[in-house]
Specification:
Layout lengths: L4 H4 L19 E4 L1 H4 L5 H5 L2 H7 L3 E4 L33 H13 L3 E6 L3 E3 L3 H5 L22 E3 L5 H18 L3 E4 L7 H14 L3 E4 L21 H4 L3 E3 L1 H11 L7 H12 L5 E4 L4 H7 L2 H5 L3 H10 L3 E5 L26 H13 L11 E5 L6 E8 L2 E8 L5 E4 L6 E5 L5 E4 L4 E4 L4 E6 L1
Parallel strand pairs: 1-2, 1-10, 2-3, 3-6, 6-7, 7-8, 8-9, 9-10
Antiparallel strand pairs: 4-5, 11-12, 12-13, 13-18, 14-17, 15-16, 15-18
Helix pairs in contact: 7-8
């Protein structure tokens, strides 16, 4: 009999956000619009929507689409996170009608669209700086200040002002009403008071039920913060947000690849996640995103030969997977953050790899996001180079194992794996008998689906 969410976690009743049914099977894809195509426009990107839908993507997250500040601008085009006008569209990308057309095309394919929202700060030349200087934070000398010292192209808001809260809520409502978007990815959401998000969410959901993603992780510092500056008790997932970033797992995978932590520390991470949250909560897992790619390095720099096995983990461990622009092209270049730097798609060499994983995620009952009735079972490993698990719900099951060693390994299989399976990457049927071992290639993986 399934264990109830409240029995699993004593604070489960506090997590009141209701996820839409479609989100249970969802994968999210981040779009770096500026560099996605040579044109860098809504219309040019729109041509990729059918490909992404067939790959198994459910949610398309667009990096900020607003006009960019010119004062203190970094690079030739500036950061998309230096917002000059919350009600405008960056002409670099097109028009409001172009955005509407993109959203309509996405909806026709069954895709949802999130806009990236920067509520914590603006560019120096946002009109609000002159119109409402009191809405901003100031230092002891009365000067405007950035939220993080290195973010010299932006200045931070002060949310103690009710008028600012009203303005920002109205701006959020505008894009839902005018462009029919399906939610927001909210930049450094934990630097904005949680009660603002709670109240704004109530108003937004009166227009249409939204999906809200917070750039934050209560298990790991976000947004360039130190551990001392970091708030691990924002409660963003209780009333305001459907999902936050899984930063702690992301950095753990980096550390494993660097031989700074053992592979088995994934178990410690999963235990910390379950101690913090009930299993109904969504965390987003990834090997790259716009910040990671540009500032920390490509997944090939950071993960080396473990790029693909760790991508398998981010899709099949509990949580919602993220694919970043260019990962299906095996992008092995840090994209310029403040300048034009188009991607060379090279006929999408990893399109099939991601399609097989994401379509499995989409269809399989044991892999549903936030499902409190499915089970995660670790498979005992003969050495520290293998990490394997079963995810099963009733008679449906997926077996996943990765090998971080430079030599092939064998994983002993427990009695509950006896039966008929199929390898999702080559469609080969496999009959497992009691006492069998599963061969796993060097720096490789196996993913089997019970049939």
């Amino acid at each position: 009999m399934p264990v109830s969410d409240s029995a699993v976690h004593p604070d489960a009743h506090l997590f009141q956000v209701r996820h839409p049914e479609w989100a249970a099977t969802a994968t999210i894809y981040e779009v770096n619009l500026r560099n996605y195509t040579p044109e860098g426009t809504f219309r040019a990107f729109e041509a990729h929507l059918p490909r992404l839908a067939s790959m198994g993507v459910s949610i398309v997250w667009l990096m900020p689409i607003h006009p960019i500040g010119e004062v203190e601008r970094k690079g030739s085009l500036g950061s998309q996170y230096a917002v000059r006008d919350y009600f405008g569209v960056n002409p670099e990308f097109g028009t409001l009608d172009d955005l509407r057309h993109l959203v309509q095309a996405a909806h026709a394919l069954g895709l949802r669209v999130l806009l990236d929202w920067v509520a914590n700060h603006t560019s120096w030349d946002n009109a609000l700086v002159q119109q409402h200087p009191d809405w901003y934070q100031h230092d002891a000398a009365g000067h405007l200040v950035p939220p993080i010292p290195d973010w010299t192209d932006v200045v931070a808001f002060d949310y103690s002002h009710p008028e600012l809260r009203r303005y920002m809520t109205d701006a959020l409502l505008y894009w839902v009403r005018e462009a029919d978007i399906d939610g927001y990815r909210c930049d450094v959401a934990g630097l904005v008071p949680t009660d603002f998000w709670d109240e704004a969410r109530l108003e937004l959901d009166e227009v249409k039920p939204l999906f809200m993603l917070a750039e934050w992780d209560e298990l790991y510092p976000s947004g360039g913060l130190s551990w001392e500056q970091f708030n691990s008790d924002t409660r963003l997932l209780e009333k305001a947000f459907n999902m936050t970033f899984g930063l702690r797992l992301h950095y753990l995978l980096d550390h494993i690849a660097e031989d700074k932590q053992p592979l088995q520390d994934i178990d410690i991470y999963l235990a910390a996640e379950r101690a913090k949250y009930p299993p109904s909560v969504y965390l987003m897992h990834f090997t790259s995103n716009h910040d990671v790619n540009s500032w920390d390095g490509t997944e090939y720099e950071r993960l080396g030969p473990l790029v693909l096995p760790f991508a398998v983990l981010t899709v099949l461990l509990p949580g919602m997977p993220l694919v970043y622009t260019g990962q299906e092209a095996a992008l092995n270049r840090r994209l310029a953050f403040f300048d034009k730097d188009p991607i060379d798609w090279q006929d999408y060499p990893l399109q099939d790899f991601y399609t097989r994983l994401l379509q499995l995620k989409r269809r399989h009952p044991a892999l549903r996001n936030g499902d409190t009735t499915s089970r995660f079972q670790r498979l005992p490993s003969p050495n520290e180079d293998l990490y394997g698990f079963l995810r099963h719900k009733q008679d449906a099951a997926v077996l996943c194992v990765i090998n971080t060693a430079a030599t092939p390994q064998m994983l002993p299989l427990p009695p509950e794996t006896v039966g008929s399976w199929q390898d999702i990457f080559d469609d080969t049927p496999l009959a497992i008998r009691e006492g069998d071992q599963l061969p796993v290639p060097a720096h490789g993986w196996r993913v089997l689906e019970r049939i």
